[in-house]
Amino acid sequence: MEIAPELRDLSLAPRASNQMLAIVLSACMANQPSVCRDYKIPIKEGIDAMHCMTDAPPYFAQWNEDHPGWQIKRWRCASTSEDDI
Questions:
Q1: Region 63-81: what's the mean pLDDT?
Q2: Looking at the record's lineage, which domain of life comes first (predicted)?
């Protein structure tokens, strides 16, 4: 069985409490598609990568409501300690 690309760098084991995951959204402005940004949405402590992936969709609805004029292009789950976001 092949591992999905978004899960390759994540352990499916529960995270230690000091290693939280976040949903990382890549979104672009609807009226200027070349203007894009990454947004990090922290999720509850102790969640593993698989649950991050399955629990993420409700966060999208709230994010869309809070960010009118932006469109989510892609997303992934990542450690909140990732500095390159």
A1: 93
A2: Bacteria
- Distance from C-alpha of 29 to C-alpha of 15, rounded to nearest angstrom: 33
Give the rounded distance of the alpha carbon of 33 from its chain centre: 20
Average pLDDT in the 55-74 region?
A: 94
Q: How far apart are CA 53 and CA 31, in angstroms?
A: 28
* Alpha-carbon separation of residue 53 from 58, 73, 78 (angstroms): 11, 16, 10
- pLDDT (tens digit, 9 = 90+) per residue, 4-29? 444 444 444 444 445 689 999 999 99
Q: Which contiguous run of DSSP H or E holds residue 25?
A: strand 21-29
Q: What is the pLDDT of residue 11?
A: 44
Q: Where are the domains positioned within the chain?
A: 22-79
